Amino acid sequence: ITGTSQADCAVLVISSQAGEFEAGIAKEGQTREHALLAYTLGVKQMVVAINKMDHPSTNYSQERFNEIMKEAKNFLKAAGYKPKRIPFVPVSGWTGENLTEKSDKLKWYKGETLIKTLDGIDPPKRPTDLALRLPINDVFKISGVGTVPVGRVETGVIKPGMMIYFAPGGHSSECKTVEMHHEILPEAVPGDNIGFNIRNVSVKDIKRGYVASDMNNNPAREVEKITAQIIIMNHPNQICQGYSPVI
């Protein structure tokens, strides 16, 4: 779930094998659940890879591909997606068909390979002009380095030398270094999953879920109430006005 919430695009892999696809789109099937989770967590761009086209029950059949695509569009629309904007790509992870190169066994398919389809995804606009907001995913104590919070930059920019304020809790410290994939960065922008080094703040003072911000530019603060979107994935009864859920 953490990985999905940090993604710009989702690849929904659907098995074309007889029985597996039908189980995945059943009421409590994983395919249906994963699509709803992706949309709920804010991943608005999606590519659907219809896998196992090499399986004997499928045998690279265009008819089976079209059948799955039609059913998938229905539940993706119900989840909130716009099916017309979603590419459907037939592939075989086992034999490598249509992953990086076009396949002679799928001559009826006129679209791009999976990798080229992913290359064609529009990168989202990065809100670098807003105040820094960096939800903390984890905190580490590294010998010789100090306290290293990690997370994904949602808005703004984080740079070494910036005074970082953590909410809730009210702790603050100077950002010494910013690192991504073991590479030191001059700054990190929205979409970057980073770790940053701070001093004089213990790992016990910062927890997963805290938000890091720039102390000198609209720092994050505690609030008394929030407006939230709650999506119910499976409920046995009808929900109507006046219903009082237990959270």
β content, as a range?
Answer: 15-25%
Quickly give the structural class. Answer: alpha+beta
Q: For the record, give the distance between the C-alpha atoms at the N and C termini, rounded to a whole number.
A: 20 Å
- Tally the beta strands: 10
Mean pLDDT over all positions: 90
At CATH level 3, the topology of the largest domain is Rossmann fold
Compressed to H and E, one letter per element, the order equals HEHHEHEHEEEEEEE
Question: Per the principal axes of the C-alpha atoms, what is the gross shape?
Answer: globular
Low-confidence segments, given as residue ranges, are none
| Major sheet summary line | 6 strands, antiparallel, barrel
Name of the CATH class of the largest domain: Alpha Beta
Radius of gyration: 22 Å
The DSSP helix count reads: 5
Second CATH tier, the architecture of the largest domain: 3-Layer(aba) Sandwich
Q: How many domains, as an integer?
A: 2
Tell me the helix content: 10-25%
Q: Largest sheet, order of strands side by side?
A: 4-5-9-7-6-10
CATH superfamily annotation of the largest domain: P-loop containing nucleotide triphosphate hydrolases
What does this protein look like?
The strands form 2 sheets. A 6-stranded antiparallel beta barrel has the order 4-5-9-7-6-10. A 3-stranded parallel sheet has the order 1-2-3. It is α+β, with helices and mostly antiparallel strands and 247 residues long. It is globular and about 60 Å long. 18% of the residues lie in helices and 24% in strands. The longest helix is centred in the first third of the chain and has 18 residues, at 62-79. It has 5 helices and 10 strands. Helix 4 links the parallel strand 2 (45-51) and strand 3. It has 2 domains: 9-120, P-loop containing nucleotide triphosphate hydrolases (Rossmann fold), CATH 3.40.50.300; 133-214, Translation factors (Elongation Factor Tu (Ef-tu), domain 3).
